[in-house]
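MODEL INPUT / OUTPUT PAIR
PAIR INDEX: 1
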Amino acid sequence: MTSPDPRPPTGIFVVNLLPVAVGVIAILLSLSFFSQVAPSLLAITLAIIVATALNPVARRLERHMPRAVAGTLTVLLVVAVIGMALFLAVPPIAAQLGSIGTSTFDLSRIEPQLNSWLRAHPQMDAMLPDDIFDRAQTQLSTLSRRAAEQLPSLLSLVLGGVFTGLVTLVMVVYVLGNPVPLVNGVLGAVPPKHRLAATYALAQILKQTGAWGRATLLVMLVTGSCTALGFYLLGVQNWLVFGLLAALGELVPTIGPIVSTIPPILFTLADDPQKAVWVAVFVLVFQQVSGFALSPLLVGGAGNLHPLSVIVGVVLFGGVFGLVGAFLTVPFLIVIKAIYQHFYLREAPDIPDAVAMALISGVVEDQLDREEKAREAVRKARAEVQEAELEGQLEDGKLDLEAALTADVTPDRDGPQDPPGGPSAPRAP
């Protein structure tokens, strides 16, 4: 009978290779599928969000009429309000969009100010070519011309958006009118032992998604109105378009409001540099007020998500699904958080805040340093004892080479540690 080889294997072995490969392929196929159906996914998600946000209105109307009639009437009221707003806002917005399409940038107005600033800073002047303004003017003119050429494609995009909006509207009517079979279908797809947790998770998703949808609409309305009014008072051309752009920027969390402020500053800079400074100051102040007062007041605990989680979600979902993924970041995070809380976190112990504070304040690091110093002291003490024993064996001519070369003087991290006097030394009481 041969004894097993004690040597460890030198190769790398993958355990459960087939399930891992199938899982990776399934993830890649899912990402490819969702990237192809992103517009349809947007319409479906929008329908669920809008229906959830309008559900409180439908529930109040349901007290006086059937649920189907209440849902349809709720949608008709919202459509009437949106239609009236579009009837009043579309003509001036179209006129201002036309003026933007035919306008060109003229850097000749800001060239003297920039030249004087460059003369005051010769280091920067030496780094820039002499024809920097001519190149910039040429590039801006080209961009303006290309933007005007893209207006037909923009029109087709608008028409596609209108069609998607109509399909979404029809789905909202059906979801609001008869939501019971849909909810039962979702819960019925969950195994019976997890159905209670799924019910709580679905309730949390519906509550937070509806609150987020209503809060987002309010933030868009307030942001667009205040921005348009501020630009109007500052004398900014196309103030209504830029106000609408600021409102649409609220659809993409955190990043959208920042990006939407760039066009008005650039357009105003090409027309009046001094006015552009005031526009930048106004935008900066309003974003601070919105970020610290307006959004927390209106959004509140709608999603109860950390800002870093939202930014990471925008980057990840936006990188996979584009602009649609960036817009759907908060609903996706609400779903992920609800599933995590009700299917995993309920059985996991809560971590006290004191642990996190200890990590942040450096208390744990200091404790680790003290433990490391204590282990090092024990190791040195053991090494000294071992060295003394080996010297004694060497003097007697009875040195055990195998024991000397394989001796371990590293203290055990988990087990009890011997005192500096060695294993046989008495311990302090």
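PAIR INDEX: 2
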Amino acid sequence: MPKLASDLSSVINHRLNELTPSRIRSFDQQISSIPNIIKLTIGEPDLDTPEHIKQAAINDIKANDSHYAPQSGKPELKEAIANYLKRSLGVDYNPESEICVTVGATGALNNVFMSILNPGDKILVPTPVWALYFQLIKVIGAIPIQIDTSKDGFILTPDHLQEVLENEGKGAKAIILTDPSNPTGRVYHAELLEQLAHVITKNHLFSITDEIYGELVYGNNQHHSLSQYIPERNILISGFSKAYAMTGWRLGYIAAPNQIMKSIIKMNSYLITSVTNNVQVAATEALTNGQNDPINARKVYEKRLNFMKSGLEKLGFELATPQGAFYIFAKIPKKFGQDDVTFATELAKKAHVGVTPGRYFGKGGQGYVRMSYASSTKNLKEALKRITDFLNSIE
């Protein structure tokens, strides 16, 4: 096997040396070898992609749709996305010039960060949050400013945002907001988003909203978007991975004003050329004829949420009021203090249940663990039983 020439060993992008592997993934791999473990660690639906969506992709392959797609996406998919955003949020985007199709929401994040951030720019990141944000921002040379929301019920308040902007976040260029939240499952209501929009506008910020879980909101809660209040500032990111159980299809999208979208599409074309044809056709089918698919998935997840919430609260866990996505962010027993890593490790080794330490999601996550209920009801029932036995054994 070849060994890299010694004179080339230091000729790399040095910013990569500053990045750490995903601790979420590393912990998941660490516990995966434990026999008979039930993993509630990774945020991936256990549901299957609906049959009509799969069939649309198969038909497209058989039709020899095998040439380059337009760099910003197939026109029919961009039109379907624009129609969906109009239908679900009441926002208007021109499918020709204000929509871009990407390789997953992660690809969308890369496109946006690389389009608006320069080395040294500050971007505000309310935490706890999906930790990949930090690495994508750092590799550009920009600076993520964490905003710990734990004292406000894991919701960013307008007053807290303004306070940060007057101190460590002074001069920030942008803010990214995940709604519904990963890992807490919290949802921002309309009035709060409107108030945040006022602060964002007053401070001349870009806003980026990661709305990948937007279809998965439970109870009387509704999904809203900053695009409903500041469409001239907001860059909306979403995709098909969660609501349509299409994580492996890698299909996301961006909606934003034309002026910034020109740069985003340019970056998208440099990074990927274009998204796979049959995947785009499948996504078009999802939005056009699959409106009931997220509703059906939501019913399954909400039932699981209620089961897990009830069971964990009976065991004495304090929860971060989950309202959306498919996660529960639970405060660990007092016996462990703030040591969520030890708790998660012992739970995996002794009870054979995998959960993710909360500190891996940034400031405010210490002392919590994230549990994904995107797992079968059978697994969740057994996991809850094992957690109960584990807690009884340490009391």
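PAIR 2 NOTE: The domain at 6-49+293-394 is CATH 3.90.1150.10 (Aspartate Aminotransferase, domain 1).
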